[in-house]
Amino acid sequence: MHFRLAAMQDLQQLKTTYKDIIQNMNNNQIPIWDDIYPCEFFAEDIKNHRLYVLLDKDVIVSAFVLVETNSGEKSVEWQSNKHKALYLDRLGVNINYSRMGIGSYMLEKAKETAKSLGAEYLRLFAVDINEPAIQLYIKNGFTRVNGVYDEVIDDDLILHEYGFEAALCP
């Protein structure tokens, strides 16, 4: 398998892979992504060199984004606000590669990449109903912090998100 920054030629396959992930999440009563999010953000992520992919030959196995800010970052109590942190976003695993340890592998790659970019913490948000993701993060050394970020999508949808972080040892 090969880990690298995503390129524009990956865009269509990324969208197809994530549409399958979204359908699988919906089938499992985790309706938190849709036709717009996260797929419509990938082109900008690629242009800004913040989207990473894992490939098995030419097949996208997994992807994530590393960003410097998050709209919920001030809603929770991080261990330290004095140290540089990056935020993990849009982590997804191709449904054909489920239950193979890819999520854990990608969290390690995210930690390594964030550290190489000078971050001392890797942070993320997980929607309260996304138990599989929450379990994955805890299993991989992330600690839930105090507070909840309520992301208002529209009048009928508010996502309650927990903050998680992992210190990146020097």
Shape by Cα distribution: globular
Gyration radius, rounded: 15 Å
Order of helices and strands: EHHEEEHEHEE
Low-confidence stretches: none
- The class by helix and strand makeup works out as alpha+beta
Helix content: 25-40%
Q: How far from one another are the termini?
A: 27 Å
| Strand numbers in spatial order across the main sheet | 1-2-3-4-5-7-6
Mean pLDDT figure: 91
The number of strands is: 7
Largest sheet, described in full? 7 strands, mixed
Proportion of residues in β-strands: 25-35%
Structure description:
This protein has 170 residues and is α+β, with helices and mostly antiparallel strands. Helix content is 28%, strand content 34%. The protein has a seven-stranded mixed β-sheet with strand order 1-2-3-4-5-7-6, with helices on both faces. The longest helix has 17 residues.
